[in-house]
Design brief:
Elements: E1 2-4, E2 18-22, E3 28-36, E4 39-40, H1 43-48, E5 61-65, E6 71-78, E7 82-94, E8 97-121, E9 129-132, E10 138-146, E11 149-173, E12 188-190, E13 194-195
Parallel strand pairs: 7-13
Antiparallel strand pairs: 1-6, 2-5, 3-6, 4-5, 7-8, 8-11, 8-12, 9-11, 10-11
């Protein structure tokens, strides 16, 4: 997204010297695209204009102008989150049933996210009990089969950073045979940089 900085002027002023600053919001980065008659401010100059730091303090971009007209356009980019995960699988075999409990611990850095994804084998039930832990709320979730996996997409009620923990539970009926060849279903996070 591109944004032009609006020009402000005091009506009837005989001299116009000042500074402009752009402070990106959370999860955003701002890059200068075009600058006309603007000079980047260092820390010392920024304080003269009541601005914290300098031209790059906290991601802020600050410039001074000596007289109008001046102009600036900026490119605004949403920072993608970087996710890593740990997954824990607890499986209990009983007569004719497999009881599964999973915990997926997502570590979310650089930006917030509302969307988390994990996969289970396609042979697992379509009906699972899913909840977020530690006061995080889930808005909705959906599982779809894609090839040999059931891909679960979880939308959180609010964007989150740092640690988000999901718990998943289900019971799966097993065959009645005396001996079963069974691949134990393991949950794994998807759309993450890495997981352990």
């Amino acid at each position: 997204t591109q944004a032009a900085f609006p020009v402000f002027a005091v009506q009837g002023a005989t001299r116009d010297v000042g500074a402009i600053a752009v402070q990106p919001g959370e999860d955003l980065t701002v890059y200068p695209d075009t600058l006309d008659r603007l000079t980047p401010l260092d820390e010392k100059e920024a304080s003269r204009y009541g601005l914290p730091g300098g031209s790059s303090a906290g991601g802020m971009l600050a410039y001074r102008y000596d007289s109008p007209p001046y102009s600036a356009t900026f490119r605004v980019v949403r920072v993608p989150p970087r996710l890593t995960a740990r997954s824990y699988s607890f499986l209990r075999l009983g007569p004719g049933v497999l009881t599964a409990h999973y915990e997926l611990v997502y570590d979310i850095r650089e930006a917030r996210t509302r969307r988390l994804v994990f996969v289970l084998p396609a042979t697992t039930p379509a009906d699972v009990r899913l909840r977020a832990l530690d006061g995080v709320n889930i808005k909705e979730y959906e599982g779809t089969v894609a090839g040999d996996v059931r891909r679960w997409t979880v939308l959180l009620a609010d964007g989150k950073r740092d640690t988000v923990r999901l718990a998943v539970d289900f019971d799966q009926r097993l065959g009645d045979a005396d001996e079963l060849q069974l691949d134990l279903p393991v949950a794994r996070a998807d759309d993450v940089a890495y997981q352990s």
